[in-house]
Structures are given as C-alpha cells and as structure tokens.
Amino acid sequence: MATRREFVAALGAGVLAASARVMYAQQQQPEAAGATMEGDGYVPVRKLPRPAAAKRLTPQERDDVERMISCPCPCTLDIFTCRTSMPCGFSPRIHADVVMLSNGGYNRAEILAAFEDAYGEKILMAPRKQGFNWVGWLAPFAAVGGGGLVVAALIRQWGRRAAEHRSASPVPIEASDAEMAKLEAAVRGDER
Q1: In this structure, are residues 97 and 42 in contact, taking their beta carbons and an 8 Å threshold?
Q2: Is the N end or the C end of the chain the one with fewer CB atoms within 10 Å?
C-alpha cells in the first residue's frame, strides 16, 4: 500500500504528464484546411425571408446568438467576440448572415439550426445536450465525483491504519497499580 506522500507524488506526476501530452497535441495539430483568418471555406447561410416578417430578435438577442456560434477561423472564439476584437474573414460574413436571418423573421433556434445545417455541430460553441453528447456534459462531473470518493476512501483507510498504530502499544508495560499511580502523580506534577 502506498503512503500518502507516494500517492500525492504519483498523482502530481500523472497530472503533469497528462497536461504535457495535451499541450504537445495542441501544438502538433495542423490548421484545418480551409479555415484561415482570411475566411477561406466560408459557407453562406441564407434563407428566404418569411412573408410579412418583422424583426424577431433585438440587437442584444442577436449578439447572444452570435455568442453561441463558434468562429471557424483558428481563433476558436465565438462570432461576436471574434468580430469585435480581431481581424477575421469569417466573423463579418457570418454576422451579416445572422443579421439577414434575424431580419427575415427567424428566431434563435432557427438561426442556430441553419448554421448547424451548413457547418455541422462543430459550429456551435457548446454541443447540444442530447444523445451521446450527454457524456461530454456529465463525464467531468462523474470523474470529479468518482475521484472524490476514491480520495475519501483512501483517507478513511489511512485514518484507520493510523488509529490502529496509535492504540497498539509498542512496549508492554509491566507495573503495579502503586507504581502507575506514582507515575501519574509525577506526570501531573502532584509529587513533591
């Protein structure tokens, strides 16, 4: 059985190794074909306006929709942030598509569905909470909960083992009751 120090050291080494692997993998990934800052690979998202359609989204609601759409350029930001903070070939054109759909009478869900049809689910900032995607939503919480249970079990086991060691006297005491009383008095400071 590992000691606490060995466990903590092994846990720390595992976390460092995992984070190093992730960082290395991120550095080694090539830029996706057609996804450059110039906007190569842009797919227009257009629908005919609804007859007698009035604007359904306020500017704030439209900006919220843009925050739900991931920019296809290498920045990995949402469309609103990319459009307002960096030069990008995608975000102004996608913003124009969102404005056109909003002015055409489409609501939030319909606009997101139109972009998902054109680009696939990867265009969404967060996957939909359905089907296998639930694993992505629930796995981190399950991992943290399971890890907490394992750590609690280890701490409980170590506590029991420490209590057993404390209760077992390493040297048997062979003394009479009078000698023990004299020793207790000396420890309390009663004897003079």
Answers
A1: no
A2: C
Please give the average pLDDT of every successive group of 10 residues along the chain, which has 192 residues: 81 82 62 55 82 79 90 84 82 89 89 89 80 79 94 93 73 83 87 54
Which residue from 165, 171, 145 is spatially nearest to 3, judged by alpha carbons?
165
Domain CATH number, residue 95 = 1.10.8.640
With respect to residue 1, please indicate whether it lies within any of the assigned structural domains: no
Closest CA to 101 of 47, 44, 53: 47
Examine residue 119 and state whether it is found in any structural domain, yes or no.
yes
Please state, in angstroms and rounded to a whole number, the distance separating the CA atoms of residues 91 and 93. 5
What type of residue sits at position 17? A
Sequence-ordered list of residues with C-beta below 8 angstroms from that of 47, at least 6 positions apart, any chain? 101, 104, 106, 114
Q: How many CB atoms lie within 10 A of CB 83?
A: 21
Domain, as residue range, for 90: 56-126
Q: Say how many C-beta atoms besides its own lie within 10 A of residue 93's C-beta.
A: 17
The count of structural domains within the chain is 1
Give me the count of residues in the chain.
192
Coil, strand or helix at 69: strand
The reply to whether 88 falls in a domain is: yes
CB 89 within 8 A of CB 37: yes
Q: Are 112 and 68 in contact (CB under 8 A)?
A: yes
Residue 113 forms part of a structural domain: yes
